[in-house]
Amino acid sequence: MVAQTYPHAVELGDWGGYRYFVSKEKFHFWDAEQHLQSIDTSLHLLSVHSFVENMYVYNKVGEKLGMSPYPPYYWLGGHDENQEGQWEWIDGTPWDYDQWTTDTSEAQYGPEPNNLDNNEHYLMVYYYSNGGWNDATNNPGDLPFHYVFKAKIITSQDTTNNSEPKINYLNNVYPTLFHQSRGWFTFESNWEEPTKIIISDGSGRVVSYVEIQDPYGVNEISLPLLSAGVYHGIALSGRTKFRFKLSLTN
Fold first, then answer.
1. Which residues, in sequence order, are CB contacts of 59 under 8 Å at separation 6+?
2. Is the domain of 112 the same as that of 196?
3. Based on the domain organization, do 198 and 115 belong to the same domain?
4. pLDDT at 1 (0 to 100)
5. Burial class (CB in 10 A: 0-12, 13-18, 19+), 79
6. Do residue 139 and residue 57 come from a single domain?
7. Are 74 and 140 in the same domain?
8. What is the pLDDT of residue 36?
9. Is residue 162 a part of any domain in this protein?
10. Is residue 2 one of the residues assigned to a domain?
11. Number of CB atoms found within 10 A of residue 129's CB
12. How many other C-beta atoms lie within 10 A of the C-beta of residue 70?
C-alpha cells in the first residue's frame, strides 16, 4: 500500500481508501487552497460526504493537534462565495452532505449557516463541539486556520486475476473520551467475520450488546443513555478479541 507523504502536514490516518492530513501551518481560506495546490495540483481542501467521514476527521484532528491553548480550528473546502446559500466544494464533488450546527444552545446567533453581517461564506470546523460546521469570514485580519486534505492510497493487487484493491484497516475505536449524551462511537476493523461488541460498566454489568455481520471497515456503534464513568469494551470475532475502554464525561 502506497500513499504520498507531505512534510508540511500531520498524518491523520487512513479511511475509505484515502490518507487524511491536516496542515501544520495556518492560512486564510483561499491561501490554504493555493498553498496545497503549490505542493500538489491534484489536491484540494477536503470535501466531506458522510457523517462517519466528518467525525473521523474531527476526532483525528483533535487527537493529533490537541485542544490547547484553544481548539484546532480547520478549513474544509466548502464555500458559498459565488451565490449566498448555494454551498459548493472546491474539488467539484457534489454537495450531498452537511453537518451545520443548528442547536441554538451552542449557535447563539442562530442555526448555522447564519451568514453574520452577510460576510460568512467559508466552511470551518471546531468552532462548535461534536463536529458541527460553522460558516466563517475570510478577512485579512481574521485568524488563520489549519486545513485538511486527503490523498488517494494506491493498494497492491494481483493483476493476474484483476482483483480489486483492498484497504488495510486496523482494529481501532474512537473517540474513547466523550460526553455521556453522545450516544455512539466508531469501531474500525479489519475483521471479516461476524463480530460481537459488548460494553460493561465497572461492576461487570453488560450495558450494551451489538452484533455486526460484516464488520470490515468503519462501523458506527450506538450506545444507550449511560451515566458518566469508565466502561470496558470487548469485540469478539470467533476466538479473536479486541479490548478497549470508553470514558464518558458529564
1. 131, 174, 175, 186
2. no
3. no
4. 43
5. buried
6. yes
7. yes
8. 93
9. no
10. no
11. 14
12. 8
**How many structural domains are present in the chain?**
2
Q: Is residue 123 a contact partner of residue 32, using CB atoms and an 8 Å limit?
A: no
**Cα 59 to Cα 45, 72, 112, 132, distances in angstroms:** 18, 11, 21, 12
CATH number of the domain within which 183 lies:
2.60.40.1930
46 lies in a domain? yes
φ, ψ of residue 62 to 5 degrees: the values are -60, -40
Q: In whole angstroms, give the CA distance from residue 54 to residue 97.
A: 10
For residue 69, what are the contacts with CB-CB under 8 A and spacing of at least 6? none
Task: List helix spans (H) across the chain.
Answer: 29-39, 51-65
Cβ partners under 8 Å of residue 84, min gap 6: 115, 118, 121
Q: Please report, as a single letter, which amino acid is at residue 77.
A: G
50 and 111 co-located in one domain: yes
What is the model's pTM? 0.64
Q: Mean pLDDT, to the nearest integer, of 175-186? A: 87
The fraction of the chain above a pLDDT of 70, given in percent, is 92
Q: How many helices, marked H, and strands, marked E, lie in the chain? A: 2, 15
Q: Do 67 and 183 lie in a common domain?
A: no
Instruction: Work out the number of other CB atoms within 10 angstroms of the CB of residue 176.
Output: 17
Mark whether 129 and 243 lie in a shared domain: no
Is 235 in the same domain as 183?
A: yes
Residue 147, helix vs strand vs coil: strand
115, pLDDT greater than 70: yes
Domain around 238: 172-249
Range name among 34-48, 98-112, 141-155, 227-241 with the lowest pLDDT average: 98-112
